[in-house]
Design brief:
The complex is a heterodimer. In chain A, helix 6 (about 100-125) packs across helix 14 and helix 10 (about 185-195) crosses helix 15 (about 345-365). Chain A is about 65% helix and about 0% strand. By secondary structure, chain A is mostly helical. Chain A folds into 2 domains: about 5-90, no CATH class; about 100-360, Fumarate Reductase Cytochrome B subunit, CATH 1.20.950. Chain A has helices spanning about 5-20, 30-35, 40-50, 55-60, 75-90, 100-125, 125-130, 140-145, 145-175, 185-195, 215-245, 255-280, 290-315, 320-340, 345-365. Chain B folds into 2 domains: about 5-235 and about 400-465, FAD/NAD(P)-binding domain (3-Layer(bba) Sandwich); about 245-395, Flavocytochrome C3, Chain A, domain 1 (Alpha-Beta Complex), CATH 3.90.700. In chain B, strands 1, 2, 6, 7, 8, 9, 18 and 19 form an 8-stranded mixed beta sheet that branches. In chain B, strands 10, 12, 13, 14, 15 and 16 form a 6-stranded mixed beta sheet that branches. In chain B, helix 1 links the parallel strand 1 (about 5-15) and strand 2. The chains are: A mainly alpha, B alpha/beta. At the A-B interface, helix 1 and helix 4 of A face helix 5 of B.
């Protein structure tokens, strides 16, 4: 076994203090999960770190937070441990290094995505097409041929999903697997936890998103981003069904399902991404690890730009600006697909597994031995 | 920068729960209030930062309190732990008022939670703060800021000018600079003197050097001493305090709650001379945890050693510091510097005295010793399954009981028996009025909240008249 990182040792030191204190048990899933343990192997710490939603409730309530010599700072320490686990379980393995300067990587990949798509369009099509208004059925495919759009999307998306699945498999095994047969109740609980972001509720009254005061700000912005993202996914899916099942070709009318899903999804994504970035800027920096900030800002900015260019594309789709806007939008989308396994996007996978594992653990483990 | 040239209606010295309750109540009654907290903002809140709950009377189940807890039972609990060394009228008033303490704190933004694990089974009698005392302190400071209370951090009140029982102004150190604060009424909520080792040495001699101060190091007792020197009536035994069994390896100051060890009922405890000195299994830990600090303080070297074996490990909360462990008692004695032969004999004598029984960690079981002095009345199991473990113990002092005398309106009493015209007190600095000795879990926060509210109300009344 590889030697443990300093972050793992530090997380263990902090958890051993927390486990003797337990004041934070009412905040989120992490502390009851901690209380089910008396010692913390690296796999336990990885699990707890990925269970942590970074709500900062425990930091602001902590009698041992800096400048106390114990220096307990679970949100920052777990954020760094999560980053290490993202790198550890990246597929293929050498790509773990992508998490070292993640902000730079995401920014660079997004720029390259736009550049390559624009170059491809200019090289494959008559450049004049790019600047003239295209209307009627198949307008988009006169900019980027149908075969190219589909194969680029399939390749990039397929690769991203496959690499994330390999990461999930590695993470699952490393954190101890689960054994036993599939049970519906824990899976349902984990799904509800994800869809409601229960752990960003701080036990009912909200989290310390900005300072010692409680709010639901981060939870609501994250909901906007998540549901916006899912609506955009629904837009693409319904578009594909229209195309392949009904033979209805894009562009679709504004009040068609794909355009409605995409429009409102885009608006929600922009709102969510902008709100989350703003929250990161104004939040008390004490509980924040600077190591993770670059990658987080870059991914939020990318999501914001994907949504923004999608909406702009809708606005200019009957004008000569449509060609360039389509290439930019698709360039960002393809870059996003490729970046999924090497960016903050993996948090969804590992958080989901951690929530599922926690829901199963709660049912199988005996409650912690409470002192008499 | 705060304008310190004005005359405030009320000056509150201190920055914990008792001070904040007084400041908020006075402000809500219309007074202008300045609160002087000795600590910097990051370490604000006095000992309240380390607390977790308060004990509250309740006639029926509430959101977070189960069943009921009525005046007579509460009073009996207090009478037992203090061995009757209390002021019944004042104590009963405090107990009755405690019913409204959680509601007041909730109105100030404090959130309560149902108790879950490791809470000494106190969910019937004590209301738990979600996130603990620092979350409570944060909520109270936010409320104080919102109400327009002037909050001065890094500001130590050093002296109060008192003439004929009337306080006129305060000499303070404000961010390192000397300053004066003028006021019409004064509330002393600046804690006990437990952080002042020199003062402790006066009563305890060199033993005081081995006391761990569990809470804030800012509790220097400066105002307590200042007031007592200016004709304020003293109450309480200066050697009495609330103290628990702490891990001997804990920091000497500000180690907080997580340093306490609750392994005692599941161990035998010997002193440096390898002698047992008290019945480790006398009662359930919530009813006995507060006597062990003092017991250890009275041992040679102010140190003790809790010895158990692998059977006991899951019966108490995991400690911050790993216990010493060894495969034989003799080896364990070597690790902790005790005489091996004597420790083997103590364990052997104890093992021989253990009677058969059914072990129940959570309740008074029938596992006890026969013919052993002192006995172990419950949870007595043979120490025979290696590895053997030792948790070294030292006294952890929470707060001292020496106090200024107050009446039931929180008004400071002068040595001649007359009430001060404009001085009030709440919290640890007057806790000795009710706590002659011993401690009841969560009662410190009850005293702070109840007397803080009364002090704030009365101080605001003076200003209006």
């Amino acid at each position: 076994m590889a030697t443990e990182s300093e972050t793992v040792a530090e997380a263990r030191r902090q958890m051993e203090i927390c486990n003797a204190c337990r004041y934070c048990e009412g905040y989120c899933a992490v502390f009851p999960a901690m209380a089910m343990r008396r010692s913390f192997a690296e796999a336990d710490l990885t699990h707890l770190a990925n269970l942590c939603h970074g709500c900062k409730g425990c930091y602001h309530a902590c009698q041992y937070a800096p400048p106390h010599p114990f220096g307990i700072n679970i949100p920052a320490t777990f954020a760094e441990l999560r980053l290490e686990s993202y790198a550890e379980h990246a597929w293929p393995k050498p790509m773990g290094r992508a998490f070292e300067r993640n902000g730079t990587l995401v920014t660079l990949a997004a720029s390259l995505g736009i550049a390559i798509t624009l170059i491809l369009v200019a090289a494959l099509q008559d450049p004049a097409v790019l600047y003239s208004a295209q209307t009627g059925v198949g307008a988009f495919f006169r900019i980027i041929p149908y075969w190219l759009m589909v194969s680029l999307a399939t390749l990039t998306f397929g690769y991203g999903v496959f690499a994330m699945a390999m990461g999930a498999r590695s993470y699952w095994r490393a954190t101890g697997g689960m054994g036993g047969s599939f049970a519906p109740a824990p899976a349902a609980e984990a799904a509800v936890d994800i869809l409601t972001l229960r752990n960003l509720g701080g036990g009912g009254h909200g989290c310390n998103d900005v300072d010692e005061g409680f709010s639901q700000r981060r939870r609501h912005f994250h909901q906007a981003l998540l549901y916006g993202f899912l609506l955009c996914f629904a837009a693409t899916s319904t578009g594909a069904i229209y195309h392949h099942v009904f033979g209805w070709k894009s562009p679709h009318a504004f009040f068609s399902l794909p355009v409605q899903f995409g429009t409102w999804g885009g608006v929600l994504m922009m709102l969510g991404a902008a709100g989350l970035m703003h929250t990161k800027i104004i939040t008390d920096p004490g509980a924040v690890s600077r190591k993770v900030l670059g990658g987080e800002f870059a991914m939020l900015a990318l999501l914001f730009l994907i949504a923004a260019t999608g909406l702009l594309l809708l606005a200019v789709r009957h004008t000569g600006a449509m060609g360039v806007m389509l290439a930019i939008h698709l360039g960002l989308v393809f870059a996003f697909f490729l970046l999924m396994p090497y960016s903050k996007m993996v948090h969804g996978v590992y958080r989901g597994i951690a929530l599922l594992r926690n829901a199963r653990e709660k049912r199988s483990a005996k409650p912690a031995p409470a002192a008499g | 920068m705060a304008d310190l040239t004005q005359t405030f209606d009320v000056l509150v010295a201190g920055g914990g729960n008792a001070a904040l309750c007084a400041a908020i109540t006075a402000r809500q009654a219309g007074a202008t209030v300045v609160l002087a907290e000795h600590a910097p903002r990051t370490m604000r809140g006095g000992n309240s930062r380390h607390t977790r709950n308060l004990r509250a009377l309740h006639p029926g189940p509430t959101g977070v309190l189960t069943d009921s807890y009525l005046e007579e039972e509460y009073w009996d609990d207090l009478k037992r732990v203090t061995a009757g060394k209390t002021d019944e009228a004042l104590a009963r008033m405090c107990i009755r008022a405690s019913q409204h303490a959680p509601g007041f704190l909730e109105s100030c933004g404090v959130v309560f939670q149902p108790s879950l694990s490791g809470t000494l089974s106190l969910s019937r009698t004590n209301a738990f703060f979600l996130g603990g005392g620092k979350a409570l302190v944060n909520a109270l400071y936010r409320t104080a800021e919102r109400l327009g209370i002037v909050i001065l951090y890094d500001t130590e009140v050093q002296h109060i000018e008192v003439r004929d029982g009337f306080a006129t102004e305060a000499i303070v150190s404000h961010r390192g600079f000397p300053a004066r604060i003028r006021f019409k009424a004064f509330v002393a909520s600046s804690g006990g003197f437990q952080g002042n080792r020199e003062w402790l040495r006066k009563y305890w001699g060199d033993a005081a050097d081995n006391f761990q101060i569990r809470g804030t190091p800012y509790a220097q007792g400066r105002i307590l001493k200042d007031l007592l020197a200016q004709g304020v009536q003293e109450v309480g035994d200066p050697t009495q305090f609330h103290a628990v069994a702490n891990d001997a390896r804990a920091p000497m100051e500000d180690g907080g709650l997580a340093m306490r060890l609750d392994c005692v009922p599941f161990s035998i405890v010997v002193n440096r001379d390898v002698e047992r000195f008290y019945d480790e299994g006398e009662d359930v830990w919530p009813k006995r945890y507060a006597i062990w600090g003092r017991l250890i303080a009275q041992q040679p070297g102010q140190v003790a050693f809790a010895i158990n074996d692998s059977k006991a490990q899951m019966d108490y909360l995991p400690p911050v510091f790993a216990p010493y462990s060894a495969d034989s008692i003799a080896e364990l004695a070597g690790l902790i510097g005790l005489d091996a032969g004597r420790l083997e004999k103590v364990v052997a004598d104890y093992n021989a005295a253990v009677q058969p029984g059914t072990f129940k960690a959570q309740s008074l079981d029938d596992c006890h010793t026969e013919g052993l002095t002192p006995p172990k009345s419950h949870w007595a199991r043979r120490i025979d399954t290696p590895p053997y473990y030792c948790h070294p113990l030292k006294p952890g002092i929470t707060f001292t009981f020496l106090s200024v005398k107050v009446n039931e309106r929180a008004r400071v009493m002068m040595a001649d028996g007359t009430p001060s015209a404009n001085m009030f007190a709440s919290g640890e600095i007057m806790s000795g009025n009710i706590l002659g000795q011993g401690y009841l879990a969560g009662f410190g926060m009850t005293i702070g909240t109840v007397f803080g509210r009364i002090a704030g109300e009365e101080a605001a009344k003076i200003v209006r008249n």
